[in-house]
Amino acid sequence: MPRRKKIALIGAGNIGGELAALAARDELGDVVLFDIPDKLGLAQGKALDLEQNGAVLGHDAGIKGTASWDDCAGADVVIVTAGVPRKPGMSRDDLLGINLKIIRGVAENIKAKCKDAFVIVISNPLDAMVYEMKKVTGFPRERVVGMAGVLDAGRFQLFLAREAGVSVKDVRAMVLGGHGDTMVPVLSYCTIDGVPVRQLIAADKLQAIADRTRNGGGEIVKLMGTSAYYAPASAAIQMARAFLRDEKRLLPAAAYLDGEYGYKDLYMGVPVVIGGAGVERIVTIELSADERGMLDRSAAAVRELIDAGKKL
Length: 312
Ligand SMILES: NC(=O)c1ccc[n+]([C@@H]2O[C@H](COP(=O)([O-])OP(=O)(O)OC[C@H]3O[C@@H](n4cnc5c(N)ncnc54)[C@H](O)[C@@H]3O)[C@@H](O)[C@H]2O)c1
Hints:
Layout: E1 6-10, H1 14-25, E2 30-34, H2 40-57, E3 63-66, E4 77-80, H3 96-113, E5 118-121, H4 126-137, E6 144-146, H5 149-164, E7 171-172, E8 175-176, E9 184-185, E10 191-192, E11 195-196, H6 203-214, H7 216-224, H8 230-244, E12 249-258, E13 264-275, E14 278-282, H9 289-310
Parallel strand pairs: 1-2, 1-4, 2-3, 4-5, 5-6
Antiparallel strand pairs: 7-10, 8-9, 10-11, 12-13, 13-14
Helix pairs in contact: 1-2, 1-8, 3-4, 4-9, 5-6
Bound molecules: nicotinamide-adenine-dinucleotide.
Residues 10-16, 34-36, 39, 81-86, 95, 99, 102, 105-106, 122-124, 126, 147-148, 151, 179, 226-229, 232 line the site of nicotinamide-adenine-dinucleotide.
C-alpha cells in the first residue's frame, strides 16, 4: 500500500518553520520539525500552530515537533537548516567553525536514521556544509545536494524584471558557482521571454544588477539583523517537490562535481536535473570566457573553504 511521504526538517528556526508551512500547504507529505532539546518547545509550538493553520486553510498534513531523531527515521526527504545564521557584518564563511560541528553531528544521525533520504542542505557556508554532509553520510552524490542557485537566481530575476519593467514571471536567469561573494550570475543565459537580456537592459545596469545579486543575502541581513527565510524556504521546497514528484526540473544547485566543468571532489552551483532519483544529471553548458574565469575563481574560493573545514 502506498504510504504518505515523510519530510524531516532539521532546524526549526526561521527557515525551518517556513519550510514546514510550505511543505504542508503543498501536501508533500507528513512533516517532522526537529531541533535541539533546548528548542523542543519552539519546534512543538510551530508544529501545532501549522497544523491548526492547515485546519483553517483546508489542507491536511501531519506536522510533529520533536528533539528525537527516532521521529525522523525513514524520512524520504531531509532538509537541513541546523546551525546559526549571519549577523550584520558577517560573511557566510565566518560561520564555518560553528556550523561545521553542527553539520557533522546532524550528518551522523541522518546516516543512522534516514539512510535512503534525499538530503537538501541549506546551512551556510553552503558549499562546505553540503560537502561535509556527503563525506560523513557516505551517500551517493545523487542524494546530497545544496540549495543556493534557485534562491540566487530568484533574486537575479527579480532585479532584472524591475529594471526592465516586466513581470518577474517572464525572466529566466541562472546563477552558478559557490554561494558566496564569488557567485556567478550568468548573463549570457538571461532572457526575458526568450529575448537575451543584453538587448533590453544597458550593460552598466546589468553589471549593477549582477553585483546586487551577489550581495542579495547581505542586503537583507543588514536590514533585519538575520538571514532571509521566505525565499530560501521556497527554493528548497521547489527542489524537494522536484524529487518527490519526479518532475525532472532543471535547476541550479550545489552538486558534487567529479570532473564536470573540469573540477573534481568539489560541491558548487551548476545546472542539474532533479527527479525521482535525486540529482539525476549534471548539465554542462557553454560559458563565455569571462564567465568561465569567474567560475574558476569561485571554485577556488570554495576549495579554500572546504580545505579550511578539513583542518577543523
Ligand atoms: N543556502 C542558502 O541560500 C541560505 C539562505 C539563507 C540562510 N541560510 C543558512 O541557513 C541556516 C539557518 O538559517 P535560519 O534563518 O533558519 O536560522 P535560525 O537560527 O532561525 O534556525 C536555525 C535552527 O537550527 C537549530 N540547530 C542548531 N543546532 C542544531 C542541531 N545540532 N540539530 C538541529 N537543529 C539545530 C537552532 O536551534 C535553530 O532553531 C543558517 O546557517 C543560514 O546562514 C542559507
